[in-house]
Amino acid sequence: MKRQFDLVAHLLLIAAVAVGMLAILRGRFAGGDQFLVIIAIVFFYLAWGLVYHYAKRDLTKKLYFEYLLIAAITSVAGILVFML
């Protein structure tokens, strides 16, 4: 059961990121739209990570801040690439 949960959860993450990448490619001439897609992917990744680790009962402050740090770095990169 654990392996099935992990498989489904990771397939969901991969599918969401793939859809996000396609949305970025589709809006390749609109930097603002691409930035909004990046932010949506970041929020999904953050929510996915927190829910996934909460469900596995191994969510710690360290993991929480790690996900926040990755989300912040990605958001800053999105700002630098698409908004400046």
From TrEMBL:
Transmembrane segments: 7-29, 35-52, 64-83
Keywords: Membrane, Transmembrane, Transmembrane helix
Protein name: Uncharacterized protein
Species of the source: Candidatus Curtissbacteria bacterium RIFCSPHIGHO2_01_FULL_41_11
